[in-house]
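Could you join me in thinking about how sequence relates to backbone shape in a protein? Would you write everything just below, so we can both look at the same thing?
***
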Amino acid sequence: MPDNNRGRPWSETDVYELRGRLEIGSEVDDIAEFLCRDVEEVRLKARQYGLYLNPTASSRQIIICGHAIDTADILAHLIRGSASTPVEISLGKPLADITPVEGRTIVTHDTRDLFLLKPLFRQLTEPARETRIILIMRDPRDLLLLRNQEAGGEFAQGYDHTLHVSDSGVVTFSDSGILHTQTVLEANAARYGSQALVVRHEDLEQRPDWVQSALARFTGLDFVKPFAALLENDARWATTVKTQPVLELEDVERIVRQFRLAPALFDILERWKYTSTGDRRWYDELARSAPAAFDDTPGTIIGFYTAGTRYEHEAARLTNSIRRLGLALELVAIEPQGDWRATVRRKPGLLLDLRKRLRGPLLYVDVDAVVHRDPWPYLRGYRGDVAVSGHKGDAIVSGTLLLNDTLETTHFIEAWISATERSPEAPGISACLEMVVLAHRLGSGSFRIQYLPTAMCRVFDRHYNPPVEPIIEHLQASRERFADSGDADHQANLARRRQRVAELDGLFAAEPPMLTAATVEWPGRIAEESWMTSDLSIDAEVKNDRL
């Protein structure tokens, strides 16, 4: 191919010809030949000017990612079923390991790839790889109502987090939620320019032929079967993806509360033309039918500690952090049991006593924690019996538990006690709790279990990406057991704890604690402002000790 202009400066005429050839859909090889330039040189100049390059048929890679919905999977199969040339769908393979295949188009549709695009930017934009990125968008109101059948049919995602189901079956509310996912989606759309295309789920639903035409121009693929016909025969599209027109009361309450706690959701609706700017009549109508969505009445925070031990100081810190929020607290002091394992195994029995004695929702918090913000505006959105916390991909933990005022909640705690009695050698009380939760997912127990966000049980020195703004912060007092250990890792963990404790003691020590071996109670009041001030995000790495 002649390339006698290779390396020469580009004139205005050259750029004009490049634009013109791209507008009529010329292949990159043909453009390079016409301009007497090298193919890679043409690609680089097109990207420099943000121009769309029509990929050659021999080396396409299409990445479909975005919000965690079935649309990505269905769209991948639509592309394969409609294209006139071979299309391969690749699953379970890291993006970094996928390379172009001569004569084929490779499509991936793992929604998590959205968060991998930035570190792979150079690889995805190298001249040898013709990559197209399809970013799936959907109305946040619909996203809030999607349910995860692997997690007992609970709501799959919120503004702050998305349910994560590990390979071992542990469910945690720890993946990136709607707000952070949308931020990354829009950043990638801007970063990749002509290589990225945002496809709204609603457009695929309401005008599939228009979407198909746009994708044909964007990918360079020739589609021979209409998307609309293929969708009519896709059972998943009809049953799990299409927008449901009828809302149950719980659905309405959820939408109203989530938008109330995270007003940035309104901005997404307006920015992507789901609603007109400033038009919130739809919200006002829903709000009038869901007064419970505005009920932030606080319940009681509960806990226990061993009298005459270092945990009295932990209890004092927790008490002061809750006192400054004006929330109700009930702490129970117990006598030392001789062994810390025996002490923690008393937890479910103490919780059962408190649940039977007190009215209203209870939030159990380990005593070696502090409460930074009023959790009740968020927690009042839970209609189940129990909500548990956990570390992503790792385990259910018992450091923070929501215990609603229902008969089924007592049944849950009784099941936890039974699991503890049956498993005296279990590594910890959280392990017994996890047994109950996993058994429930397999059909044991009539109680409804839901999942708390990472912010309700944030370990002070865990690594979260992006950072999690804590509502409840756990300080891992169990590390003090290793004060005399010569192990370097133990000493490093302990040093980090003591540094953080010193910071918090300075913050929460304005008033002396009032602790005795009896129960400590503080009268509660409704907070004047919501605790929500920023987006809550994913729990990325789990490397430290469990609660």
Q: What stands out?
A: The chain has 21 helices and 19 strands.
